Amino acid sequence: KAMAILQRQHASPQTEKLAGIVERQVSHLKRLVDDLLDIARITNGKLELQRSMTSVEKVVEHAVEIAQEGITAKGHRLTVRAPQGPVALYADHVRLVQCVANLLVNATKFTPPSGEITLSVDVAPPVVEFAVRDNGKGLEPEFLGRIFNIFSQSRTVGEPTSGLGLGLHLTRAFAQLHGGTVTATSDGPGRGSEFVLSVPAVVD
Q: What is the pTM of this model?
């Protein structure tokens, strides 16, 4: 709200640019705090899923919305392959969206500009699988075993890291709360990665 007032009272390209930077930094910090709070709740056994009726279409739409800014900024091409027609799910919509969005954001972060990212959805009742594939930097075999650990990040010499490495840890935790799994595979450095989120949530 304070930034909106500043923009109105001192409207200029420079002010708008600075306001945009502040808003993005505040949004980033809020997300980090929310992630840390979620981890604390999970650790203490106090996070409960809020299940309700949703759909594959809504989960995909909202997850892509969250990841779209980063995808656009790096000039990636996102291809979505999902079933035709409605597929009803009974799940915690917010947490499921967060899981898929985390996988998309992760792919965006570790794929060089103008990369290829694919989100594929496969339905085999009662399970739905969300697979995110990229042609990015890939993963070393020894890192696959700990990619979902808290504060874990794959580091490349000369490449800065960002965030706290919480996204994939939370994705695994939310998947497990749904009775599902998330796995990672890669053919090695420079050969891309694939993350598959499998959740028993399909409603016949």
A: 0.78
